[in-house]
Amino acid sequence: MGGCFSKPKPVEVKVELSLLEKEKEVDGLSPNGKASPFADSRPNGALGHGSDDDSTPLPLYHKPRDYVEASVCHVKDLENGQMREVDLGSGRALLIKEHGEFSAIAHKCPHYGAPLVKGVLSKGHVRCPWHGACFNIATGDLEDFPGLDSLPIFQVRVEKDKVIIRANKQALQSQKRSKPMARCSAVINSNTGFSHVLIIGSGPAALVCAETLRQEGFTDRIVMCTMDRHPPYDRPKLSKSLESTAEQLRLRSVEFLQDHDIELLTEKEAVAIDLKTRSVIFEDGLRMEYKKLFIATGSKPKTMIYKGQDVENVFHLRTPDDANSIARLANNKNAVIVGTSFVGMEVAAALTDKAHSVSVIGIETVPFKHALGEKVGKAIMKLFEVNRVKFYMLNEVSEMVGQHGQLKEVALKSGKVLRADVCVIGAGSIPATGFLKQGGIHMDSRGFITVNKMMQTSADGVYAGGDVVVFPFPPRNNKKVNIPHWQMAHVHGRAAALSMMGRAAEIKTVPYFWSAMFGKTLRYAGYGEGFDDVIIQGDLDELRFVAFYTRSEEVVAVASMNYDPIVSRVAEVLGSGKTIKKRDVEMFSKAWQVRTNTSMFYFKCYLIDHM
């Protein structure tokens, strides 16, 4: 990728808007979006891209006023491998130059709205700087997760050394598009106890599985059953935004699911599977037969043993209703968080501006020691202490003390007693697979479902994905691992759907997760389980650092705060199948201590060379 040792020339961008007088473009755009729609365009300087409305020849009723056109820069203003966010008057787009050709796509990641201009451009796709989603720059299609939507693309041409973008106004405003989906062609009574594909769960694995099936042309019945009473929602936000409603967090509306013939049955808890009859039995007595089954039930809270199990105002954060209750009950009250998981710590951070006091109980010496190492854990712990969170580490709960059924105190095994009006237990989770124990599906000793690289279980026609599985992980020589990340669940859902359709594809993704506390975001990519060393560059006290997790002589994971897009850049290298050597990171680490900006620049160039 070019441009590593040079900066784009500063340029004053003159925006020239015009509405085309004729509809001569209607017949000029090829289906793949590659051909320039203008006869006088320079053929080697433009890619004729379209939005979701532009990707096929436009019907004659499309009017020029639906589009905007702008001259956004000189042809020499961008070097190969560079991106620029440009204003078209009715909205903004991301202009990209790669291999001498220009392309234009929406400028925001549809997942959380990250500016893609700050992301990583490599080999025909751009990777989001915040959470690692990848988009094809020629089609706008989502190539790696998280998220559900793709990007609109826009027509680009070069005229008299000016780069001109033509875009649909609506696409500029929406900044996202859904892939076309098939509809169910079968005439089926909704009360029929049979589904060609039955999905248990409504998280990202379940939802992506259903949507991928429709995107790939599946026209038979799909039924998605969930214990929840809400349509699919963004669970990671629960612990970060306690007052958000289910509607604010929703991933897809009921209307969206209905429009694409994805049937959703809420408050349906699976209690057993009968492999002989290929059916699932639910708690309310419903029996649903299937041809293909996808199990994506996620995880459930780890059981804790203590006195006072019947005391109220003790929560496991599972639903928007739980989050809303926690926020309401903690207002100007005393809150206690049991456990230093990411969920527990995010809840603690979210409550500091609401509660009178926030206390955290943990069994380790510092939070996140196992996942991030002691040094990073200590640095994050200091952030909490500055924000008046009190820690009681190397401790466990012995009793929840109530008065008239309401929580009043939390007693610790050390003898310490904490005032508490609300308690949130965030002490980890286990796979929600209890209903499978007598079902004949192979699970490991911890209760995780074992699947192959196509997400198939030991039972014919049964697939599984998300937090409930252990699966072959190529970077660890196909060792079966459990990676309970929101992003990875998306990947599993797509892999399972493609496998059901007979189009199995191996999982080629880099695990990616994030956590937000006190307005600061931790990003993490890779699989660091069993790391034997941590190389830290930057300033831990200022929480502006990059931590490289190594195993033997290779970097297996990276975490950072305030150093975007370094994690996405490392993910791009690891995703290409290349390795980052420990000795190389150590070399840059020494230079970092002398000249931070310079060493960071050269390390960026090192990563680019490895992509």
Describe this structure in words.
GO terms for molecular function: 2 iron, 2 sulfur cluster binding; metal ion binding; oxidoreductase activity, acting on NAD(P)H. With 611 residues, this protein is of the alpha+beta class. It has 4 domains: 67-174, Rieske [2Fe-2S] iron-sulphur domain (Rieske Iron-sulfur Protein), CATH 2.102.10; 194-300 and 432-501, FAD/NAD(P)-binding domain (3-Layer(bba) Sandwich), CATH 3.50.50.60; 314-427, FAD/NAD(P)-binding domain (3-Layer(bba) Sandwich); 519-607, FAD/NAD-linked reductase, C-terminal dimerisation domain (Enolase-like, domain 1, 2-Layer Sandwich). The protein is built from 12 helices and 36 strands. Residues 1-61 have low confidence and may be disordered.
Poorly predicted runs: 1-61
Number of strands: 36
CATH class of the largest domain: Alpha Beta
Output the structural class. Answer: alpha+beta
Q: What coarse outline follows from CA principal-axis ratios?
A: globular
For the termini, the CA-CA separation is 8 Å
- Taken together, the total number of domains comes to 4
Strands of the widest sheet, in order across it, are 1-2-11-10-5-4-3
CATH topology of the largest domain: the name is FAD/NAD(P)-binding domain
- Any idea what the CATH architecture of the largest domain is? 3-Layer(bba) Sandwich
Strand-residue fraction?
Answer: 25-35%
Overall mean pLDDT: 88
By CATH, the superfamily of the largest domain comes out as FAD/NAD(P)-binding domain
How does the major sheet shape up? 7 strands, antiparallel
Helix content: 10-25%
**Oligomerization state of this entry?**
single chain
Q: What is the C-alpha radius of gyration, as a whole number of Å? A: 26 Å
